[in-house]
């Protein structure tokens, strides 16, 4: 314990000295105008209460701790993944390169190992909403960049914005723009297809089917792609895990499409029923959606559930919809 306290004190002193070396931290826009790279830049982030704040972070950080898969996804896409010294665990195939001995395991995206985070001596820490309650504790170690999907902006614009924020910390704004190229045209094609079509969007979890609105997970389908989501009342929040619905409800609503995200498959719940076992019952199989081949299982549920907000994740999510509906 004494060693841990001493380390925290030393880190605080070092951070104080570093802050004193630059009297006036510059913003991203000011940094781009100067030929000499700044020591710090200021980015817009969130605090533990989810409020926007202006956060001073090291420019071009060399040691990065990541406790959010969307942020790790963006860092990977920008080509700075070699700076990651610690990461939360993940089962995402395309991020398995960060699950190796040289990179410290920092816990999960829901529960950080604070001692491990401190031990990897990061210059900056990235988190998502699941760790908002740990924001203050993590901020004692290094600046915490907390980014999320803004439901007012939508998923695509949130990815664009957050990728730009992260890129600005490395002077890689052009690279971020390159990575985002092409998404708009794919979204337009899906919107043309979805126009005038009804859908129920939901999630299988713990043996049940929960309907989702346009205010949280899978909101891309109804909010930006444009399927008319008839599974929820617009005034009812469903942003966390949705609202449990009966299969009789699905029959009553009679949507043209049913989109299903398998949460238990996404998080690897042992012994859980898979989505087809839950959905393919006598009631659902009697609907036109099922008969017409429009019961769509989102092919990469772990990406939808744990990495929404990443650049590669967005590509995968759009591909799941393209392959599901444009056949």
Please tell me about this protein's structure.
With 327 residues, the protein is α/β, with parallel strands linked by helices. Helices cover 39% and strands 18% of the residues. The protein has 15 helices and 14 strands. The strands form three sheets. Strands 9, 10, 11, 12, 13 and 14 form a six-stranded mixed sheet that branches. A five-stranded parallel sheet has the order 6-5-4-7-8. Strands 1-2-3 form a three-stranded mixed sheet. A hairpin with a 5-residue loop joins strand 2 (40-46) and strand 3 (52-58). The protein starts with a helix and ends with a helix. Mean pLDDT is 89; it is low at 1-32.
Set down the secondary structure blueprint.
Layout: H1 2-20, E1 26-27, H2 28-33, E2 40-46, E3 52-58, E4 64-67, H3 69-78, E5 84-87, E6 104-105, H4 114-119, E7 124-127, H5 135-139, E8 144-146, H6 155-168, H7 173-180, H8 183-194, E9 198-205, E10 208-211, H9 219-225, E11 228-229, E12 243-245, H10 247-253, E13 257-262, H11 263-267, H12 275-279, H13 288-291, E14 295-297, H14 301-306, H15 311-325
Parallel strand pairs: 1-2, 4-5, 4-7, 5-6, 7-8, 9-11, 9-13, 13-14
Antiparallel strand pairs: 2-3, 9-10, 10-12
Helix pairs in contact: 3-6, 6-7, 8-15
Gist of the model:
Helices cover 39% and strands 18% of the residues. With 327 residues, the protein is an alpha/beta fold.
